[in-house]
Amino acid sequence: MNGCTISTNWYLGVFSSAFASVVSLTGRSTGHQRAAHVDVG
User: I need a surface site. Which of 17, 23, 24, 41 has the fewest CB within 10 A?
Assistant: First the structure.
């Protein structure tokens, strides 16, 4: 159970990091910084 939770948290962390990077890059190019803030969960 612990391993599953850690694995899930790790995947969520990696996904949100990658997502934030992509969103910040696209937000920077389009100029929409407000849209770059997304709360997951």
Answer: 41
